[in-house]
Structures are given as structure tokens and as C-alpha cells.
């Protein structure tokens, strides 16, 4: 009877969110994943019941949608749409990246902002959840076009952010160059030199290790997962997807720890390099990214012994560890079946929500070590939090200091997931662990602050 009630509660909750947010499949997917694990937990806590905590968390505190007009190199006027979702500020100023990609829409940014709230909570640092972006496509744009777009975007966004209010950072399509242009425009309009953005260049308030942080954090987290079964990265065959900033950090650290990364991928297909992507091949990922071509096939121009598989996902390659580091819903149930059949032991998400819900269930049902991005990729935003601290105290920490703090935070997140996600048979359900642990801190703050 009790179980039936909880199941019914989940269904009613999801139906309500669906009715309120039609045509937002990604947002609904993210909320559903959380609801399935958090609603049964809420049912066991008297102080949480009836407080509509999850319902409040699924409603952004504020959604800002704005016009971004700019002039391209041909003198033609272009019009894009800009967004900033200020999801939850219960535990700190809104914090989360900005994504420039043609697939950006309200649903995508709301799912990212919702996940960000839980992720930021897991870091234990005082950061609320937010996300922003635009449907602007940086591919094929000149440097000056990128600059003009960033300036136009910030001209509006600067009215809504600030170091104590909302601190954006990078995400897909937004790296150090874009952060620089965005920061310059904020400073010009507001006449303030503050830590309003993270991921800044070292010359103007950035933190060492921030570029590597997301990927390194993922590998530190995976290291902890492997440790639970008495294993480590040495001699593990690893499949990675994507070739952007996050994938780069993953390949670098996993290789350093003795693993062999054999794949990377792009929207065009995947590269299989049986020798392992190590040494100068890792640096070449940065060149591929900087070229703005967005083509994994370019790897062959330099490393001819590798193979390129057009239009395919890397998950068909036999591996011990899989690290999806590209984008949402890139790993489907079919991919999950291939990985499980090929004996994968650990799947650590590096992108945000790269696995579909049925793929996640397949991993969990097969007792594969599986960690959701909101836990394992939290090292990026955690290091952004460390950048905010350094900006506040007006000091820069060394690489060793930042890296040590990052590692400590990832070990802490892993422990939280274990504490809340351990099942009767000893298997750790990291999805459940991350959702509940992330929820608890935000929920406590919301309860304390009243209905606001
Ligand atoms: N975009 C990154 C994320 O998904 C980093 C956000 C940040 O540093 O604020 O967590």
C-alpha cells in the first residue's frame, strides 16, 4: 500500500510538471530522473512532506529571454535569442554555464539549470543553480563576429547578473575566448571589475586548473568508483566521446593514471585509435577544437593509423570504462546494450545528461558502476567556485592547491553518493545517491528560508 502511494505520487508529480511545461522533453527527462529517486525519500521524512520542495525546485525562480541582435562580417543584421534561467538561489548566487549552440532552447536550458542546482549542492560550495545561452552557432563565425555576438549578448545579460547575484561561466561553444569578450563588455557597461564570470583568463582573475577541472574531476570520480571494486585506471581500455574541453581533460588525466583511451568523437562520427590517444595526440585535441570545424575526422590528418567511423557512436568499441563527454542524450539504450554486452564495468558521465533514461536503467539493472553527470562532472563548477573564492580574497592559488581541493571535493561527492545510494546488496546507485544528497542541502535551506 505504502509503495503504491509513492508510485502514484511520482506519477502525479510528473504529470503535473508535464502539463505545466509542454514541449520541454529534456527538462521533463531531468525532472523525472530526480522525482523517481527523491519522492520515495521525501516520503520517509516528515519535515519534508507537504512542503512542495521538489515542485518549487522544478519552477525557475526567474526566466529571462531576450533578443540578441548583432551585425555579421557582411554587414547583415542577425537576430538570435538569449536566455538566462535563474533556477534556485537557496544555497548561494545562481551559478552555471552559458551554452552557444543551435540546439539551445528553453527546454535544454531548463534541464541544465535544474541539474545544476543539484550538482552545485553536491560540491558543498555555496552556489545556487542557473544556466544560460543562445541558439547562436559559433561554427564558421569569424573572431570578430564572435566578439560582436558576445558583446550583444552581455549588453542585455549584464542587467541580470553580478558577483552576489548570478555568476555565469562557459559550456558548449563558450570557452576562454568568449568569456573574455563577455567579461570585457560587462566591465565596460557596469564599470566594475568583479568576479562576475568564471573560466576567465589567468591575466584577469581566472583560476589555474579551471580548463582541466571538469575532465580531471570526472576521472577522480571514476577512480573512486573503480576503487569500490578494488580496481584502478591502470591498463583499462577507455572509450570517450566528444573532443571538446571536457573530453580533453578526461583523456589527459585518464592517460596519466595509466589508462588507454581509444576513442573520441564528433557530430560526424568517432575516431578509434588502438594505440591509445596519448602524448601529442592529446594536445592535438586542443587544435581540433580551436579550428572550430567540429569534425572528429580531422584527427586523421595528423594521425593516419587511426580509424574513422562516420556517423557512428564510439560505444560499439569494447572497453572497460565508458566516459560520455559530448552532449545530452548521446548514449541510447542500444548503446548501453552494446557496452554491457562488451563487458563494460564503469560508466562515468562527463557531459550533462548524456544517457537516456532507459540507458541508465539498463546500466543500473545490470549492476554496472554508473554515475550521473551531475555528480561526476561537478569538478568544473566546483573549480569555478574556487575561482570565485580566489577573486573574493584577491589571491591566486597554485595549480597544486587548486588540484588538491578539486580532488578532495570529488572524493567528497563520491562519499555523499555512496552514503545515500548504497543498496541492500552493497551496489551503489549513484543516481539515487546524487539526487538525494543534492536535494537535501537545497531542501534544508529552502525550509529554513520559508515560502519565498
Ligand atoms: N558548464 C559547466 C557545468 O555544466 C560549468 C558551470 C560553471 O562553471 O559555472 O557544470
Structure report:
With 452 residues, this protein is an alpha/beta fold. The chain has three domains: 1-59 and 432-452, Glutamate Dehydrogenase, Chain A, domain 3 (Orthogonal Bundle), CATH 1.10.285; 62-195, Rossmann fold (3-Layer(aba) Sandwich), CATH 3.40.50.10860; 211-376, 3-Layer(aba) Sandwich (Rossmann fold). The protein is built from 16 helices and twelve strands. Strands 9-8-7-6-10-11-12 form a seven-stranded mixed β-sheet, with helices on both faces. Strands 1-2-4-3-5 form a five-stranded mixed β-sheet. A hairpin with a 5-residue loop joins β1 (62-71) and β2 (77-88). α2 packs across α16, α8 packs antiparallel against α9 and α11 runs parallel beside α12. The protein is globular and about 60 Å long.
Task: Quickly describe the structure.
The relative contact order is 0.12. The protein is globular, with a radius of gyration of 21 Å. It has helices spanning about 1-20, 25-40, 55, 105-120, 145-155, 175-190, 210-225, 245-255, 280-290, 300, 335-340, 355-365, 375, 380-395, 400-420, 430-450; strands spanning about 60-70, 75-90, 95-100, 130-135, 165-170, 235-240, 260-265, 270, 305-310, 320-325, 345-350, 370.
Distance between the termini: 34 Å
Structural class: alpha/beta
Number of separate helices:
16
> What's the number of domains?
3
The total count of strands amounts to: 12
Radius of gyration: 21 Å
The overall pLDDT, averaged over residues, is: 97
If strands are numbered along the chain, what order do they take across the biggest sheet?
9-8-7-6-10-11-12
The CATH superfamily of the largest domain turns out to be NAD(P)-binding Rossmann-like Domain
Given this structure, which CATH class of the largest domain is correct? Alpha Beta
The hetero molecules present are: glutamic acid
Based on CA inertia axes, which overall geometry fits? globular
Order of helical and strand elements: HHHEEEHEHEHHEHEEHHEEHEHEHHHH
Low-confidence stretches: none
Helix content: 40-55%
- The CATH topology annotation of the largest domain reads as Rossmann fold
The main β sheet shows up as: 7 strands, mixed
Beta-strand portion reads 5-15%
What is the CATH architecture assignment of the largest domain? 3-Layer(aba) Sandwich
Amino acid at each position: 500500500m505504502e509503495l503504491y502511494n509513492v508510485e502514484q505520487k511520482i506519477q502525479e508529480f510528473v504529470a503535473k510538471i508535464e502539463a505545466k511545461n509542454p514541449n520541454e522533453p529534456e527538462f521533463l527527462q531531468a525532472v523525472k530522473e530526480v522525482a523517481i529517486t527523491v519522492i520515495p525519500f521525501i516520503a520517509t521524512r516528515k519535515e519534508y512532506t507537504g512542503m512542495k520542495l521538489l515542485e518549487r525546485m522544478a519552477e525557475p525562480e526567474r526566466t529571462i529571454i531576450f533578443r540578441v541582435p548583432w551585425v555579421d562580417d557582411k554587414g547583415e543584421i542577425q537576430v538570435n535569442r538569449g536566455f538566462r534561467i535563474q533556477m534556485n538561489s537557496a544555497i548561494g548566487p545562481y551559478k552555471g554555464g552559458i551554452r552557444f549552440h543551435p540546439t539551445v532552447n528553453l527546454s535544454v536550458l531548463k534541464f541544465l539549470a535544474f541539474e545544476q542546482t543539484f550538482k552545485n549542492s553536491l560540491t558543498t560550495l555555496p552556489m545556487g543553480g542557473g544556466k544560460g545561452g543562445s541558439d547562436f552557432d559559433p561554427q564558421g563565425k569569424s573572431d570578430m563576429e564572435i566578439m560582436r555576438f558576445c558583446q550583444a549578448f552581455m549588453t542585455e545579460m549584464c542587467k541580470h547578473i553580478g558577483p552576489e547575484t548570478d555568476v555565469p561561466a562557459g559550456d558548449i561553444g563558450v570557452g576562454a575566448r568568449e568569456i573574455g569578450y563577455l567579461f570585457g563588455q560587462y566591465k565596460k557597461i557596469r564599470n566594475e571589475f568583479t568576479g562576475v564570470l568564471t573560466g576567465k583568463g589567468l591575466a584577469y582573475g581566472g583560476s589555474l586548473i579551471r580548463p582541466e577541472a571538469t575532465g580531471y574531476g570526472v576521472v577522480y570520480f571514476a577512480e573512486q568508483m573503480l576503487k569500490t571494486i578494488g580496481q584502478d585506471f591502470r591498463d583499462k581500455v577507455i572509450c570517450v566521446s566528444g573532443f571538446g574541453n571536457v573530453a580533453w581533460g578526461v583523456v589527459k588525466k585518464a592517460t596519466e593514471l595509466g589508462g588507454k583511451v581509444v576513442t573520441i568523437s564528433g557530430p560526424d562520427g568517432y575516431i578509434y585509435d588502438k594505440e591509445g590517444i596519448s602524448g601529442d595526440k592529446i594536445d592535438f585535441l586542443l587544435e581540433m577544437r580551436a579550428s572550430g570545424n567540429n569534425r572528429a575526422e580531422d584527427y586523421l590528418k595528423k594521425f593516419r593509423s587511426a580509424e574513422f567511423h562516420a556517423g557512428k557512436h564510439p560505444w560499439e568499441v569494447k572497453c572497460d570504462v565508458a566516459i560520455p563527454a559530448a552532449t545530452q542524450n548521446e548514449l541510447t539504450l542500444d548503446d548501453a546494450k552494446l557496452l554491457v554486452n562488451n563487458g563494460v564495468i564503469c560508466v562515468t558521465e562527463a557531459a550533462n545528461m548524456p544517457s537516456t533514461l532507459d540507458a541508465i536503467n539498463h546500466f543500473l539493472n545490470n549492476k554496472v558502476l554508473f554515475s550521473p553527470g551531475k555528480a561526476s562532472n561537478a569538478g568544473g563548477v566546483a573549480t569555478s567556485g574556487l575561482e570565485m573564492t580566489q577573486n573574493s580574497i584577491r589571491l591566486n592559488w597554485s595549480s597544486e592547491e587548486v588540484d588538491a581541493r578539486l580532488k578532495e571535493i570529488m572524493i567528497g561527492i563520491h562519499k555523499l553518493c555512496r552514503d545515500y545510494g548504497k543498496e541492500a546488496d552493497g551496489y551503489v546507485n549513484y543516481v539515487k545517491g546524487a539526487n538525494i544528497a543534492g536535494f537535501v542541502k537545497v531542501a534544508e535551506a529552502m525550509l529554513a528560508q520559508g515560502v519565498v
